[in-house]
Each structure stands twice: as C-alpha cells, then as structure tokens.
Design goal:
By secondary structure, the chain is mainly alpha-helical. 80% of the residues lie in helices and 0% in strands.
C-alpha cells in the first residue's frame, strides 16, 4: 500500500475513533512537519503542537465530512498551534528582556515622587489653619481659584494673594522638588 493510501486510510479510521493506525502511520511525519515550522530553539515543542492538534481534531471528528477535510483541518490546527507557541515565546522573551534598568528607573522615579508628596504634606501639616484649609481645597479637592473664592466668600485676587503667602511659607521648609510640585498645584 502506498504512503498516500496509508495516510488516507489512517485519517478515515481516525474519524471513526480508531487512533492506533493514525499514530503508527501519520504521527511521525506530522512531528517532522511541525519541527520544520518551529524555530530551532522551539523545536522541542513539536510534539506538544501535534498532540494538541490531534486532540482538537479528535474532539471535532464528527464534524469532518472526509479524510481530506480532516487532514486539512489538522494541518491548520498545527499551524495555529505553532503560531501560538511562537507568539507566547516571543512575548516571554520580550518581557524577560525588558531592561531591568527601566524598572529600576521607574521605581526610583515613583519613590522620589512619593517622598516629594510626603514632604509637601508634612509641610502643609505645619501651616496655620487657614493655610491648611486652602491646601485641602487645592490639593485634595482640586478646586480652582474662582471656586475657592466662591467658597471662602473672597475675591479671586484675594485668593491669589493667599496662595502667594502660602508659597512663601512653603518655600521656607520644602525641598526644591516638593516646591516645584506645590507650584504646579497652585498655578491654577
């Protein structure tokens, strides 16, 4: 019996639920085919790709009208499995190759930002009551000058004057970074 006829018969028997001849006749060539699709460093995944694909085909064997359809479906399944493994591998490589320096830089930046905000809040806690109230409206509530003026029954110029006084008080106790953060909040 020719190889083509053997494969055709193996697929036909497979569709009927008999997998012995399929594994004996077709499986080895599927492994070779899959190894050729996979990059060299992933060739060890060929058996996984083939096994997963055979299992999927076996689950859907009742939907297959012919051995040719089953064979085509299996090759599509193997192709998709290979692509999936390559994508996962590339994703893992990308994640693993991210520069640890980037993480360290991000971590350092966040740590400095946190310390700066903590510094600012400590300085705010030492302010007189009216200045703490102004800071709460600016920092916590995010109110603009016009909203603060309305709430405190003041003019906008009066609020701006109060903000300048607040900055003068903060300038005495804050680090340059914390002071820049305070300027950014008070600029509105």
């Amino acid at each position: 019996m020719s190889t083509t006829n053997r494969y055709h018969e193996a697929y036909s028997l497979f569709l009927q639920g008999d997998i012995d001849s399929f594994y004996k006749d077709v499986y080895p060539s599927l492994i070779v085919f899959t190894r050729r699709l996979l990059p060299g460093d992933l060739a060890y995944l060929a058996e996984d790709c083939v096994q997963d694909s055979i299992f999927r085909l076996y689950q859907r064997r009742g939907e297959m009208a012919s051995a040719e359809r089953a064979k085509g479906s299996l090759f599509v399944c193997i192709h998709n499995a290979v692509v999936s493994y390559i994508r996962k591998h590339n994703s893992q490589l990308h994640y693993a190759s991210q520069d640890d320096g980037d993480f360290e830089d991000d971590f350092s930046t966040e740590l400095i930002r946190k310390e700066t905000i903590d510094n600012l809040m400590l300085a705010v806690d030492r302010l007189p009551e009216d200045m703490r109230l102004l800071c709460a409206m600016i920092f916590r509530e995010g109110l603009r000058t016009a909203d603060i003026a309305s709430r405190l029954n003041m003019t906008e110029s009066g609020v701006k004057k109060k903000k300048r006084r607040l900055l003068a008080l903060l300038r005495k106790t804050l680090s340059p970074d914390a002071l820049m953060l305070a300027y950014a909040y008070l600029a509105n």
